[in-house]
Design brief:
The complex is a heterodimer.
Chain A lengths: L8 H17 L1 H4 L12 H23 L8 H14 E2 L6 E4 L10 E4 L1 H23 L4 H20 L29 H4 L13 H25 L1 H11 L1 H6 L4 H27 L9 H14 L4 H30 L9 H15 L8 H21 L1
Helix pairs in contact in A: 3-8, 3-11, 3-12, 3-13, 4-5, 4-6, 4-11, 5-11, 8-9, 8-11, 9-11, 12-13, 12-14
Chain B lengths: L2 H43 L1 H32 L6 H19 L8 H31 L8 H22 L4 E2 L15 H23 L1 H11 L1 H6 L4 H27 L1 E2 L6 H12 L4 H20 L10 H15 L14
Antiparallel strand pairs in B: 1-2
Helix pairs in contact in B: 1-2, 2-6, 2-9, 2-10, 2-11, 3-4, 3-5, 3-9, 3-10, 4-9, 6-7, 6-9, 7-9, 10-11, 10-12
The chains are: A mainly alpha, B mainly alpha.
Amino acid sequence: MIDKLPIPRWARRAIIPIIIVPLVVLYPEYYTSLGTSQLIPTLSTAVTMTVFVCMAVGLNMVVGYAGLLDLGYVAFYAIGSYVAGWFASTQFASHSIVFGAVGVQSHAIGIHISIWLLLPVAAAMAAAAGVVIGLPTLRLRGDYLALVTLGFGEIIPQVVRNGDNMFGTGFNLTNGVAGITPIDPMGFRYLHGILPFLPDNFLLTPNLDVWFYRVGLLLVAITVFCSIRLRDSRLGRAWVALREDEIAAAAMGVPLMQVKTWAYASGAFFGGAAGCFYGVYQGGAIPDNFKLYISTLLLAMVILGGMGNVWGVCLGAAVLSYLNQQGLGAIGNTINSNFGTNIEITKYEAGLFGLLIVLMMLFRPQGLIPSSRRKAEFDVVKEEHEAAGVVVG
Amino acid sequence: MATDTHTARRPVLAVLPRVTGLLNRAVTIALLALLVFWLAVNFVQGPGQFGSVLLIGFTNGALYALIALGYTLVYGIIELINFAHGDVFMWGTMITVSIAGTRLGLDGSQSGIVTFFGVLAAMVGAMVFCGILNPTIERVALRRLRNAPRLAPLITTLGISYILSNAAQFFYGPNYTGVGAILPSNILFLDWPAKSLIVILATIPLLLALTYVVRRTRQGKAMRAVAQDMDAARMMGVDVDRTISFTFALAGILAGAGGTLYVLEITTTRYDLGQIGLLAFTAAVLGGIGNLTGATLGALIIGLIQAFNEGLSWHAPGEQWTTSIVFSILILILVFRPQGLLGQPEADRA
């Protein structure tokens, strides 16, 4: 219908963003007027959603663009959180370094560096870890690669959990099971003097989630922008070529090792930044948060949305992180109060996600919003299948 | 690419493989020497403790072998890492607890004959259950994806693994469930843990039976044919779908038997036991995936490493590091010897 109307192409493309962007950005202003139903996402849920959208878009670069299955993405989340923990808390009490931090005395013990500086540092450290994971695995085929990432995703949380006494030396790197807490808050320390409407310290504002939500959205915007620009770059086209046919790509002069390493590094970069932000928001880096389950959940987000399509992945991540954080419990409670049942739906969360993954793979492997290239690929597979069926039949 | 830089770098590149090869060998030998030294010191310090740790290692290894063979059988035939296999094994332990513990009430107080037949019934029950569950998974979820992109079935098995473990949580609850000590802890007056010996002894006929099926029967021949070339096998009249189902059933049967033996040895189980599958898979890769002898050998090595790490007292990293150690081994093996200890270097199958 809309195709027939005399609207220019750019305007048609702009319609959906023009509706959605203000709805998302202004969410803190109007969400209280949506009613008191527990199904309405709270601001705290919304912050978590922004974090998971960032991570899923990062993972999408590895899985969706380059076609390398990564089952250990939680490692980058952990690294990001622990960078925040190391450089913005009292963890290293023998030092006293304060640089632009919010809400700490100028001679406080421990290292306190401005979170704004730590975000790129965390991202860079995660990217470096991505290279370390990527480098030895370049020669391996897809499923072996998945196993190595799975291995790293199990090793890093275990190192973190046991890191309060590294190799029996008594050196406390990660504070063990208790984790590093509290982490310094965020705030516009210097900008506050120039532009007074920017708060000095988020924790001292009347509704602290509002500012965390805005920063989270900023991170999402940066991640999505970078993701799209990377996809259309020379590197991004090399990733897609690699995903479609490794041998053909190599024959066309795509340097496989370099391109794969960059895929891991860029994916990890955004995971690290999001992990750092989430650590600050939660006020601590806790080992129990870094489970294989998170890696699978992120993978489910990418699959649900549509591998390779940034907007689809954003949608998938928003939906699943909402369900994970608040939605499932709220839906369960709503069902129970309306029908008088007593189902603890959150207990079946893992099984429901498993079911979702299986059903998506069986009936809509291209995802909710498939990328046009992926869609074409699945159609070709189907045609080949049918053609083969005709020959055999 | 400019040709002059290419020729300039050539001599360096030509030497590189030899240097890295020598380095690899030197590092490997040094690491092995260190390992032997560490074991020797531990042996001298406590021979008795070393002996019991060795037995635990062999028992773990026997259990891992039964799971690892399932991974290796399935990978051998359709080149798929079946992430749900560990959870099929977990269901084997659950069924054993249901039959031996809840239904028959075995707790070690019954006479030898009753215990023997009770355990046998539980084992057959677990084997039948897992032997049906595993091909059902293949039939329902994996068969449709046989021509899909390579990662699709892999991700599907991951989803199934979550479904299976969540279902176990639903039926058996979130806490540990188990049976009493069904088997005696020592034989007559000898101070050997009898249950460990029984586990090891029970594994041997299972492995022999598997070898017989794969090497000597018609169905085993079909399996090997499909593993080698699916299309050629189909043209020769092999029913490929049936053969793949049969392979999944064999893998499930071994996992079920492993589940019973695990319950006899450890006595407790829980819905998230499926994670053990990752250790077993590492064993399969270590031995050379697709290779039955390799899987058994790899399982014994992983079992011993785990037991040494957790049981020895002189400079052992301890239980909290087991996962890291096993996965480090997995990564090193994949990087330096992807074909495993006994596997043949494979041609690049895209």
